[in-house]
Write a structure and sequence with these properties.
MetI-like_sf, mainly alpha, MetI-like fold, cell membrane
């Protein structure tokens, strides 16, 4: 009886949170899903009808499929560089940095979250443009050096997005690495295992959950990003995310924007579903 009461008490305490999540997450999605089947915006005297025309446009025009591939490639590139820089940083932070220095470094990692994302992106335009901060510093050290301004290019988009999402990778990996029992590493050392063998057989498998969570947290939002590609990429920053934004803010074709959004969501979920068996086996081994 007590167990029955505790179970219902748990349901009662968590019900408001789940209700709030259901309303705030699924209600807007349902509204946009309905819009994606309309022939036009339901404004004024317009009488929209239900149609699959918006979804058909995606398959009729190579333009949308090309941009979808560009968005997915951007997600892969940014995720790769976040893993490349984030995992070693988290490993050093968890295993080598001690005491207050660790707290100071953690503070530096989360510091970008305290500033507006738009300000951070515009700051990169000053750094990456020709005759910008980096360019001037190089010319001071090497007069006559060629300009390395890469603003309004694909590398500039990748740099801006890696800067924005790198803390997610460091923090998720750090939590997993910090939780590894030090006695396992000491046991490996006492048995004569090399540093590389200890990393490959103990540290990496046990830190995989944090690494994979970081990959998911970065890949999905980067694939649909539009602000960084628009500001840092210029003409080279046209992605499916920027086209979707244009449909809502410039063209006012909400049905097409909603349809493209759900197609991109379906593709990302499909990629995650295909990767799930591999991730599941790795997590089980970890």
């Amino acid at each position: 009886m007590n167990r029955f009461k505790r179970q219902w008490a748990g349901y009662g305490l968590t019900a408001p949170s789940y209700l709030w999540l259901t309303v705030t997450v699924f209600l807007p999605l349902l509204v946009m899903f309905y819009f994606s089947f309309l022939s036009q915006m339901p404004l004024g005297k317009a009488e929209p009808s239900l149609t699959l025309k918006q979804y058909g446009l995606f398959f009729q025009k190579d333009f949308y499929r090309f941009l979808t591939w560009r968005s997915i490639r951007l997600g892969i590139d940014v995720t790769f560089f976040c893993v490349l820089f984030g995992y070693p940083a988290a490993l050093i932070l968890a295993r080598s940095v001690k005491g207050r220095w660790r707290e100071a470094v953690l503070l530096l990692i989360v510091l970008p979250f305290w500033s507006n994302a738009l300000i951070r992106i515009f700051a990169w335009t000053i750094v990456l443009r020709g005759n910008g901060v980096v360019d001037q510093a190089i010319h001071v050290a090497w007069p006559g050096a060629p300009s390395i301004g890469i603003l309004y290019s694909y590398p500039a988009i990748v740099i801006g997005l890696v800067h924005s999402f790198l803390p997610y990778m460091i923090l998720t990996c750090y939590i997993s690495l910090q939780a590894i029992d030090g006695s396992l590493i000491e046991a490996g050392r006492s048995l004569g295992a090399s540093h590389f063998r200890i990393f490959r057989r103990i540290i990496l498998p046990l830190s995989l959950p944090g690494l994979l969570i970081g990959v998911v947290l970065i890949f999905i939002p980067v694939t649909g990003s539009f602000m960084e590609p628009r500001i840092l990429g210029g003409r080279d920053g046209i992605m499916l995310g920027t086209v979707i934004e244009d449909q809502f803010t410039e063209v006012f074709n909400w049905p097409l924007g909603a349809a493209l959004s759900f197609i991109l969501l379906a593709i990302v979920l499909l990629i995650c579903a295909l990767a799930y068996p591999l991730l599941k086996s790795r997590l089980r081994l970890a």
